[in-house]
Amino acid sequence: MRNFIKKAVALALSCTAALGLAGCGETPDAETGAVDESGNTVVKVMFHVDESSAEGKAYKQRVSAFNTDYKSENIKISATFKARDDNSMTGYDTELSSMLNAGNLPDIITFDAPNCASYAATGLLYDLSSLVPQDVQDDFISLNEYDGKLYGLPIQESSAGFFYNKALLDQAGVNVSGYTVENPWTFDQFKEVCQKLKNAGIQAVDMRLRENTGEQSTYLLYPFIYAAGGQFVSQDGFTATGYFNGTGAESGFRFIKDLVDAQYTSFTVGADSNSDFMNGKVGLYLSSGWTIPDIREKYESNFPSGWGILPYPKGTVAASATGSWSFGITDNQHTDKSKIIKALLYLVTPESSKAITNATGMIPALKSVETNYAAGSPESVLRNQLQTTGKERPVTVGYPKFSTCFRNVLTAINGGKSVAEALNTEATSLQQELNKLKGV
Question: Which of 74, 90, 301, 405 to pair with 344, CA 20 to 30 A apart?
């Protein structure tokens, strides 16, 4: 991991321009960044979580470990935590945009995988292709790439599915043991299970539709469109018309609408609290691996008959959610990346991966991390699904606009518009943004 250097035109940063990212007693260096009073090159890293959260504490532990291990090399990580909203990336994105415009980006940032293309195209992310050894790249389940270049390394991998309360399923006479990643249930079978739960007087499923204000709803729901045979944009990421409002996409959104129309779910299920499923009021709950530690640490006693995770139901094909947060080096004024890359690679080692995923309940991003998941455990289901049917969100420089349009479709459907009308409106809006980004 030594002697990785890319030479470019160096622009000096003043201490006041650092806007808090260069601490007191640090001297700006045009090539490597800030240098503290002890002569340490300070690598600035910005994390997207609250430092008091379990994930934040895991990052702090890895930062501390790096600073100990690299003390003799006079390299030190300085961490900044800019917690994003629970259900929105907007604040974090705004912070990054402001830093980019002001020329005071930190050296390393965390970023959500689907934003890779947008960040790379706007010059926020630095090309890592020549900095990360091939054997390191090969160990990742997935990489953050755009236009044939590497821009990020995943912190962890994600997958989502339907958490279930076995006691409520038993009460409704439902047996889901045969629905596995290898033998997924179908859209029709999913509806049959929901109907049986409804017949038993049980709220069938929480699709998290009430949380349609940020990326979370897009992340959890986009696989239904792929499963129905739909697409969102063309392969080059610049055409939405005919894709976002295509017949497959319409079929996928209609499936979601069918669940609402049949009163299996609604836009207000769990509106007062996210704990309805946790407290035994809902049979199925759409969520990601982050819910696993929450149940085990706080709600295990509320599932006396047990709980588990079912894969996404299959339409014409099987598809499931994937893509999580990653580390990337910013394209700031520091032209010598040799010390910065050491910090980044340390933050994605197997030791770091274990520490972070133990805190989040997510899936390690590295193939080499031994997980030892028990057969049939929630973690094993999610990892198997990830590797078998995981399909990333659309790769497009217009991803932020896409996510907004996706949520607007759901809002329009809830407001009484037909699926076709909502899709046509948002396809036009997305196409206008893509044309602008392409310079048409």
Answer: 90
